[in-house]
Amino acid sequence: MKKTIFEITKMDCPSEENLIRMKLDGISCIINLDFDISNRKLAIYHHGVSDQIEKAIAELGLGSKKISTEETDQTEFKENTNQKNLLWTVLAINFIFFMLEMATGLISESMGLVADSLDMLADSFVYGISLFAVGGSLMRKKKIAKLAGFFQITLAFIGFWEVLRRFFTEEQLPEFSTMIIVSILALIANGICLFLMQKSNTKNEAHMKASLIFTSNDIIINVGIIVAGVLVHWLNSSKPDLIIGSVVFVLVIQGAFRILKISK
Questions:
Q1: Is residue 113 within 8 Å of 225, Cβ to Cβ?
Q2: Which structural domain range is residue 15 located in?
Q3: pLDDT > 90: percent of the chain
């Protein structure tokens, strides 16, 4: 058996881990996947050459690079029996905050919160695909991924259109206090999700350090919306909210295309 190690520069949260797992599902030569999200490394235990594996990972566009391949005598791997329960937990947290941020975003006139709600929905899609396609065929999983990806892209483009409309028209200022409070709650929720997944999937306790949490794009987005809320109040302008909303919509579309790549 061989052990091939990949560096994946854009793998910074459990959502990317699940995308990779789904993409590699069905490649019969793979024996085990060992993720180290904190160092953005993936060790794959497999038979034969790694060309098919390398191509599949590269198609996700996560900045992957093969570091090494070596022979290994390892035959036993630690099974994570609690993974399904954890997936349900993080799915529930993400979907609840999708609804919360969408509702408060519409009420407070904040496109930043609306955009971040779609980012939460995107993560929910990834966890949901992992759960609902368990035990089903690879074709079923690909169909679900395709529907989720196109739905996400549609919502993101609708959001972009609304941002443009608001940018060129006189609009009411977003409620900055709502933006800040809800984003702080979302930040905490994202931190909990990442911590739970890291605790489950890693053998090294150091991987659970708080520094891991702040490598997540989701956390950066939450901080960005908090800053935008402060600027909305300080500058008495809705432009900071529209700018952060646009940035997040771009990230949502990128995530949607990654989901679509699973369906190929």
A1: yes
A2: 2-71
A3: 35
